[in-house]
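Page 37, top half.
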Amino acid sequence: MNATVSNFYYGAATPVAAYLMACLGAALGLRCTTRSLRRPHRRAGWLSLGAISIGCGIWTMHFIAMIGFSVQGALVGYDLTKTVLSLAVAIGVVALGVFLVGYRGGSPMTLVTAGAVTGLGVAAMHYLGMAAIHTNGTVHYEEWTVVLSVVIAIAAATAALWAAVSIHTLWASLGASLVMGVAVTGMHYTGMAAVSVHLTGRSAVSQSSADLLSFLLAMVAGPLVVLLVAAVIVMFDPDMVLGDDDDWRRAVPARAPHDSGNNNPAQHSSPPYSSW
């Protein structure tokens, strides 16, 4: 018997919260990548933080959205090992794509390769997370909808990597993160539209239990803390506090030509931001 499946058990709360998490991860990832390009001596550190931010954002989006997933006539549970493994997959594949464009640049071939690898990895994270589901039934997928979700994942990943190496101003990055949030969340719900559940037994409970909700919230708490820490690091970075490097260069007047007859040290001192 096929069960009625819903992805909106709590209404708009879960998709909106999931979208915001996807946007937060994307925004932090873009800013970290921008920092890596401006500071080659710290490139690996900023790229790592960017990959962790994007990966945690995507994974948190997925499992916040799954809070709203319910199967009528069945209890839903999750395998802890597969759930944690899906987080590692998300961060790992995003790191691969981010490091590729971070060190090899944004050439079309690099973007296509990195976008395909990252997109397939994001899709793998999604379906690995779905494989962690335990219920008194069998989960089936509609093939062409799954293919569409993978295509969306690859397109979203490629666009994200292009934005990471091409968009450097704060407001443009924020705008790009909003668009990327739509793409990533759209990939999730496209994949969920492919799901059907055939019940092999019947449970007296037809909705997510309090234990399940507690489990998912506990799983989301760790990556959410990581995102908050990453946000603090980015916000207190000198470029964010004092403005973009380009804005500072435009704001500081050109130095006067060297005058060998003038020994005033104040006229020959370096600008205060030169160490950044």
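Page 37, bottom half:
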Amino acid sequence: MSPTDTLLWVALPYAVAAVFVVGHIWRYRYDQFGWTTRSSQVYENRLLRWGSPMFHLGILMVLAGHVVGLLIPRAWLEAIGVDEHAYHLGATWMGTAAAVLTIAGLAILIYRRRMVGPVFLATTRSDKLMYVVLAATLGFGTLATIQFQVFGDAYDYRGSISPWVRSLLTLQPQPELMAGVPAMFQVHVVSALVLFGIWPFTRLVHVFSAPVGYLFRPYIVYRSRDAGDAGSRAARPGWEGIERPGARPRL
């Protein structure tokens, strides 16, 4: 195992995890007003109405697939009847569909952000960096899937990348598991680590925003303003007089 392997598959993941956690704490403490998506819907809605749902639905499917493929051991899936063939078919074709949906949605959002003037002016440097890294991560992952899973011999990442991820989570890193991983998968992993590293400093923090307080807020009581509920006296037309302090009351 070379020093480069130790740097990439042990030091870098733990450094990114530290930045991810501490960065979010720092951002929440010192930049709560910036903890937002900075929505640009007010500038343009037609492209956003198509791109945003496509991207968010696709990325949720991608995340779900990664959770199953990386965190759930093969034996657990086989215990519930999901054998290698069934898993390969589902991961390949559903993963490809999710990737196409996500990339199509992201392409629409990037086109909108670049070509719609007001939206482009509202784009910050962190937005541009986030879009580049996000697009690279999705692109490398899609290329790896197409190259090895669709047209290749179905590389068994559950025997290398998946146990490597779980070894990091159990604080018993095994970088040697990544030594023989194809380069496209390695690049995908590194780009994903870079994405998680910049995550706390971009608009991606909105992923952890949820209107939890809305569930526990007190009721808002509305009172009717009907004509028959105007108070204890009848309404009088015109302006009512205002008495000056110390003035005699009028008879």
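Margin note: The two ends are 102 Å apart (CA to CA).
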